[in-house]
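Human: My hope is that you can spare some time for a protein that puzzles me. I am handing you a single protein, as its sequence and its fold in token form. Could you go through the record with me and say what the backbone is doing? Take your time, and here it is.
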Amino acid sequence: MALKNGKAACMKLKGRLFLVLGAAACPLLTAQTMDSLSMKDYRIMSFCVATTTPNTIVWLDNNDHVLMACRQGQTLDHLRSLVTPVTDSQIRLLQDWGLLSDRNDSLFTSIPILGTTETGTLRTAMRIAAAAAVDSLRTDLCTWRRLLRRRGGRTSEYTVLFSYILDDLAWRALEQQGRIRKRTLSAERPFWDGITWAVTPKRTFHCGTNSYSDSGVTVAINWCPRSLKKMSAFMYDDATIGNLMDNLKGPSRLSDRALRRTLLRYGVVDKTGLLLVPVFPADADDSLASCCRALAREAVARFLASSDLDTIRDQTCVTDPEAMLVIAYHEFMWEFMDIAEERCLIAKPFLFSHPDQAKDSNIGDVVYIVTTSEP
């Protein structure tokens, strides 16, 4: 999930697609728990491919007030008595972005907004499911950790488990099973395609993944809100990330001296240009890659087996089964990571645990690369 302080961060690199892993027109909602809160009390999430995400639109002008007011439907006249100002162009914009729908002369918010009770119900269920999953996968997690450490990836354990296994390979497994559809931009969805939702209360800690892909090379960056200030110079450096992807199509040691100097600063390469971050050849069948894929499949299997999504859906404002799965799995991921940390199976990278003390070179601990063939 790629969020920036509750808002999705997005960019486009030289025509390269930016993946937020972390919403076209979402399903219409039934009555929602009406907390007397503003949208600022919620964390907005997006799971989508995008050039620009709907989160940007939510925070434009007073759109957040419009969406909160329309959770149970409002006529335009009544809406204008509640929120000032509301313009026709504003309503059209929200409709064009799939955030607002018009039914029977009333406007309804089209994204799930889970109140305190609904979020609590969901998180309790996901913590139970995640605890069972972590405990049953303890041996597999230890095997995976040992293999990663042999590759020099001790400081990357948290990022590889969350961003690569739970927030990438697991989604691919769910897609292969037909439980979620592949997201793609099209004439009907030119800006974004996926699911956006809001939950309250905000988690004390959560993290997400930004992925940048081009010609068979993906650079993935794990982040948390508190680390974004330190990471932003690298994470939003179009030229550096684009050049890195281009150079990864050649030899394993980067030859571009200017690029090497920049990436050395961030702990991505050593002085000779050799990559220090984990590289996963997606098409190769080595022991670590196989272990990561197997762990993702097992995590998904346990999530599905332990989560009564139909019952949870009945207790929330979410009516669409796919949206419920996406929302629930995000909570499952974060609970899984919390419990694995409580069980001392992993630890947060220094950039996440001590962002104020972290150096630029710690950024490499939260970066990994996937290639279709090993560079």
